[in-house]
Amino acid sequence: MKRTLLLAFLLIAGVKATAQQSDGNNWDAWRPLLGKWTAEGGGQPGQASSGGFTFDFDLESKVLIRRNYSEYPATASKPASRHEDLMMIYQEPGKGTRAVYFDNEGHVIYYSASLSNDNKTITFLSDAVPTTPRFRLIYSLRKDGSLGIEFDVAPPGKPDSFSKYVEGNARRK
Q1: Predicted pLDDT at 144
Q2: pLDDT > 50? residue 14
Q3: Domain boundaries, the chain
Q4: d(CA 110, CA 87)
Q5: CB-CB contact of 87 with 66 (8 Å)
Q6: What is the pLDDT of residue 80?
Q7: Average pLDDT, the chain
Q8: What average pLDDT does range 112-138 have in this prediction?
Q9: What is the pTM of this model?
Q10: How far, in Å, CA of 53 to CA of 69, rounded?
């Protein structure tokens, strides 16, 4: 009985130690994104937008949460509108950095995230699904501390044929 308990304890301790060593929660390159940002942009929807977003850690720094909103003024053909979304970014052992995105229009999108070699650009690339568009969201940290933002879309069946949909600039609040 004592041996069984000791063996169980050692197995649990070993699993926990292995998980701590390989959990991959190194968020150092992501830290420049933390905080509150204001943004302005424009693109294919045909009108300028303004908005903002935040990046904050949660769950003892195991996930990074991005909350975003964009406001579009009324035009002759459309009323004013507001887009809101939430993205949870996490590091999945064996799969790298992943994200899941939800918005007030009912979309759910799964992304892989990658950093450029100089850690100045973060790219979110949606999983390729043959019958749906594919998305790419790029944040580029500039020398003045601002962020360039680009959102690209590829049509269904052409997962690497991206066209710029919207772009913008963000400054820390």
Answers
A1: 93
A2: no
A3: 26-172
A4: 9
A5: yes
A6: 86
A7: 84
A8: 94
A9: 0.80
A10: 6
- Cα 34 to chain centroid distance, Å, stands at 12
Strands (DSSP E) along 4-133, which ranges? 35-43, 49-58, 63-72, 81-92, 96-103, 108-115, 121-126
| 171 SS3 class | strand
- First and final C-alpha spacing in the chain: 61
Rounded to an integer, what distance in angstroms lies between the CA atom of residue 169 and that of residue 66? 16
Phi, psi values for residue 120, rounded to 5°: -100, -15
The CATH T-level fold of domain 26-172 is Lipocalin (2.40.128)
Continuous H helices in the chain: 2-22
Buried-state track 134-172, b at ≥16 Cβ within 10 A, e below 16 = bbbbbbebeeeeebbbbbbbbeeeebeebeebbebebee
Q: What tens digit of pLDDT does each residue of 21-40 get? A: 334 467 988 998 999 999 88
Residues with Cβ within 8 Å of 159's Cβ and at least 6 positions away in sequence, in order, are 128, 130, 134
Which of 71-75, 120-124, 127-131 is predicted with the least confidence, judged by mean pLDDT? Answer: 71-75
Phi, psi of 65 (to 5 degrees): -110, 125
With beta carbons less than 8 A apart as the criterion, state whether 149 and 121 touch: no
For 24: left if phi > 0, alpha if psi spans -120 to 50, otherwise beta; the answer is left
**Residue position matching structure tokens 């020398």:** 143
Distance between CA 43 and CA 168 in Å, rounded?
Answer: 9
